[in-house]
Amino acid sequence: CTAALGKSSEPRAPNGRRYLSQPLVRDIYTADPSAHVFQGRIYVYPSHDIDGPAPEDDLGGHFEMRDYRVLSMDRVGAPVTVHPVALDVAQVPWATKQMWAPDAAYKNGTYYLYFPAKDRQGAFRIGVATSKSPVGPFKAKPRPIKGSFSIDPAVFTDDDGRSYMYFGGIWGGQLQRNVTGRYDPNGSKTDLNRPNAPALMPKVARLDASMTEFAEKPRDALIVDEGGKPLLGGDTNRRFFEAAWMHKYNGKYYLSYSTGDTHYLVYAVGTSPYGPFTYKGRILEPVQGWTTHHSIVQHGGKWWLFYADSQLSGQTRLRNVKVTELTHNPDGTICTIDPFVD
Ligand code: FUB
């Protein structure tokens, strides 16, 4: 596992080290990059960070995003195009605020943009919007996906054409406020508050043929330790927090995610898109900034990790998307990446 050295002219991070890679775009702030290859070109669907008045809090009230803008490039290292607004919260009948981490999919000539936002009750739901272009503009469905809740949708299409949505997040992502099947506005602010009980898990549901509704009730994407036991709520270095992503490598299903308050990107491997997934290790050590959220995509014969940090602003609420190469070892494990060099 080797990393390319940063150029000596590049600024050092607050920790005195150099950044492994530089921001993909500097004109706008972007985060939570969901990368896909459509017709040979790389498209990145990020959150579009903006500065707002909300003070920082544990529920992410300071992430006040209002719209989405798509990035695209011919290949990693080529010039990046920042496309015009693809969808604005004002165009989504049910949504009020906080257009958080999105994802996209393609099927039969239509592109689908999946996004979380808060409804009038203050509950996160997941919406979908469609377009004939990968960069939009997208037209939102009038209602969120039936049975959806929480945040961070990631849609994976398997080799047999079936698509699955992974989603969820604790703390501000509200997974812990949906355990009864209904949103409880008075529920815990963080998690289940049971460190010795199984942690809250990401959810997975297959999408129906329309790609705009669940074909089934969401179920837990169970993450277990080497002994097959569910990761526990108190295991904060390994348990799921948010930012689920799925990629398939050598026939195995790799569920990767953020550990949130411990700031790691980690992964777990299974033999079915539903899991269970056995925890394997870290993908990315903590970046500058509180959040860490990524995607993994293959292009040009290599695997790429798209991620984000706060290099440009120094503020967690104003992040910038980056990319670096990701390596699978011969035994299927993933090389841990340090986002800093020197
Ligand atoms: O960008 C807002 C939220 O912060 C995302 O939905 C989370 O994954 C975290 O990055």
From TrEMBL:
Superkingdom of the organism of origin: Bacteria
Keyword Cytoplasm: no
Listed InterPro entries: Glyco_hydro_43, Glyco_hydro_beta-prop_sf, Glycosyl_Hydrlase_43_Enz
Pfam families: Glyco_hydro_43
UniProt keyword annotations, A-Z: Carbohydrate metabolism, Glycosidase, Hydrolase, Polysaccharide degradation, Xylan degradation
SUPFAM superfamilies associated with the record: Arabinanase/levansucrase/invertase
GO molecular function, one term: hydrolase activity, hydrolyzing O-glycosyl compounds
Residues marked Important for catalytic activity, responsible for pKa modulation of the active site Glu and correct orientation of both the proton donor and substrate (site): 152
GO terms, biological process: xylan catabolic process
Record CDD domains: GH43_CoXyl43_like (cd18619)
Family: Belongs to the glycosyl hydrolase 43 family.
Protein name, entry field: Alpha-N-arabinofuranosidase
Organism, as annotated: Sphingomonas lenta
Phylogenetic placement of the source organism: Bacteria, Pseudomonadati, Pseudomonadota, Alphaproteobacteria, Sphingomonadales
